Amino acid sequence: MNIITTIQEMKETVAKLKKDGNTIGFVPTMGYLHEGHRKLMAEARQENDVVVASIFVNPLQFGPNEDYDRYPRDEDHDQKAIKEEKVDILFYPHVNEMYPKEQTIQMIVQRRVNVLCGKSREGHFDGVVTVLTKLFNIVHPDRIYFGMKDAQQVAVVDALLEDYNFSITLRPVDTVREADGLAKSSRNVNLSSQERKEAPNIYQALETGKKLVEQGEMDPEVVIEEVSRFIREHTHGKIDYVDCLSYPELEKVETINRQMILAVAVQFEHARLIDNIVFSSNGQPSTAIV
Amino acid sequence: MNIITTIQEMKETVAKLKKDGNTIGFVPTMGYLHEGHRKLMAEARQENDVVVASIFVNPLQFGPNEDYDRYPRDEDHDQKAIKEEKVDILFYPHVNEMYPKEQTIQMIVQRRVNVLCGKSREGHFDGVVTVLTKLFNIVHPDRIYFGMKDAQQVAVVDALLEDYNFSITLRPVDTVREADGLAKSSRNVNLSSQERKEAPNIYQALETGKKLVEQGEMDPEVVIEEVSRFIREHTHGKIDYVDCLSYPELEKVETINRQMILAVAVQFEHARLIDNIVFSSNGQPSTAIV
Description:
The structure is a homodimer. By secondary structure, the first copy, chain A, is α/β, with parallel strands linked by helices. Chain A folds into two domains: 2-173, Rossmann fold (3-Layer(aba) Sandwich), CATH 3.40.50; 186-279, Pantoate--beta-alanine Ligase, Chain: A,domain 2 (2-Layer Sandwich), CATH 3.30.1300.10. In chain A, 36% of the residues lie in helices and 20% in strands.
């Protein structure tokens, strides 16, 4: 595996690869890699001649109350994982390389952000699209890989590609789950043993909501109410939100007559868990982004 | 010359040209082409295998008081000019092709804009960088050509390329002038014969200011005062602004010890004329963008 730390070298390397006719799959990360990231890399490995992963903890997407300096880092572990997934190139720039000075031109995400987790993370997605635009212009990928665990991020990236006419295919990758359905997350280790037993009910709650839609329910509020009830009855977690929105637009709709996301965030004592499912108007699972 | 109106065809055409190893020079315009545009195309023709020009009147860069619908258009004249300059491809999209729906993600220019002409055109450069980012992602140029007549636009494009790591070389092209020094402009026809006689003094005023710097003057305010005096004494025009700023940062500085722009706008009865010169700290003409 080749580790590249400068923008100049990354651009030159990509230009050469492109000239030789290679397709490039790109997995942007903030490091501290877990199974979800590895699945993204494995998908990229299957579909492209060359796989590039980046590790860059992007200060722009941290809010004033979110601790950029204390974001976990584990370089040795990450490089081992990346090698095992047969990634060809790790782009690993220093923050001064990516932001040598303050940006003159800001990107501001105007829609798809003021709901779900974005509601309490003002400016977060502005930072995400800024660094992604930079990375896309440096890496020139043919395909990019993002996990559906953060379905809101996928929706925002979809808007970025569409608004600015990038020639890049967005490949959303299904959430990786434990055998009992619990979405894998580095936060799961912070659950008590009782909470860990309850946590799979979050996914069960989503499935219950989806079943209602399959059976003909068309009112998002009814679905939200049922999912909320299920979580309250089967866990001691505190519901942060349960919402049912159009996807990827993430807008409230009166009637379930298009692709939707059903998404939840539940706060346990030491872990806030999120999960979601995307389905078409008849309740069938659907590809998130066409 | 090949005229392309869809983004899809433009992207496919460029991909093929790139694959064959061609370099692409790009001249984005809003049409109604004059000699300044033709010089951009001629420069692009000299330096690239393939020259692409675009004509697109971008609604996003018009303010509420600026009449987008009445922006002049002359398709036949433009196509003739483009052919004569041996442009290979004209990208000529409809507004619905470029903006099929409202943008979700806005670009906001935070610096370099609240001075000179930008001061009275709030949001103008936001629209400029938005459409340019789209066009760059569609045309994938190696080099882009902009006239130094609009030096502020060149400064903003410079920031766009740098902030977002585009692999594009910005080629600023010198202002085209009449034999007597007057900067060529489609607005010059609106000058009365008396005003037309006076108008070359705008450039003379700039040259006078630059001479002061050559002679050792380091205070921008002294230069501004001298240029203003010269314009007042030699024309009946009303000064809109005379300013002397760092370039391309467009910031006020105490001392002329770096590359500077000296820029003016003068309102005559039926024509507002702008002009500028860029020079290094010793008053020598300099390349605007390195």
